[in-house]
């Protein structure tokens, strides 16, 4: 039908994705239901809004770069001590983000730091925020490459506009002096503009050893700890307790 074809063309020019992809179905349903002009117009616009919300959510979720496991409903309190159910519930409500509070998750490997950080990023995304999950290595590589590679610059600019950023395994490995300065500049720009979640197996006092600069470390911690909740996790390693094997158990 020529009119349906034109509707799809108009919808495409106006970026009305839902109408462009479902014009036949929507017109057919309207012929059955016989809504008023007002009802039909309202439904068209409503469906388009829903589609745009869905597209925006999927785009933000993809850009977040979340690890595979990030469902906080599956958090196992038996393998980590340091956070209670009420505290996790309060963190998931994200009210702390309104005051640009930071969160440091500190503890040995396998106690759920990364899982908690990724879960809170996912919670923020589902709540409509721009949130990203990156390792310290990702951050440093982005900083180093942003002047040479357009994709790295785009990533860096997205970070500057974020509501929440998780930096995983901060200070795990030593970094060069110029990289440390560039990292500080990023944190300084984000200070009081964006909330930051940090996972680390080292206390902030040990960061100076990695940065090899006590003054720079002090300035960095000053900005991160100004409004910050430090959560110290302990317990056995979830990964080691649930270690997988490629070998089948021998039958007796």
Description:
The structure is a single chain. With 252 residues, this protein is of the alpha/beta class. It has 2 domains: 2-63, no CATH class; 72-239, P-loop containing nucleotide triphosphate hydrolases (Rossmann fold). It has 11 helices and 5 strands; from the N terminus they run H-H-H-H-E-H-E-H-H-E-H-E-H-H-E-H. It has helices at 2-13, 17-33, 37-64, 85-93, 113-126, 136-145, 150-160, 177-190, 207-211, 214-225, 238-241, and strands spanning 102-106, 131-135, 164-168, 195-200, 228-232. Strand 3, helix 8 and strand 4 form a beta-alpha-beta unit. The model has no long low-confidence stretch (mean pLDDT 87).
Summarize the main sheet. 5 strands, parallel
Output mean pLDDT. 87
Element-by-element helix/strand order: HHHHEHEHHEHEHHEH
Distance between the termini: 71 Å
Low-confidence stretches: none
Total discrete domains: 2
Rg over alpha carbons: 24 Å
Strands across the major sheet, in which order? Answer: 2-3-4-1-5
Overall form: elongated
**Secondary structure category:** alpha/beta
CATH superfamily of the largest domain: P-loop containing nucleotide triphosphate hydrolases
Total number of helical segments? Answer: 11
Q: Compute the number of strand runs.
A: 5
CATH class of the largest domain: Alpha Beta
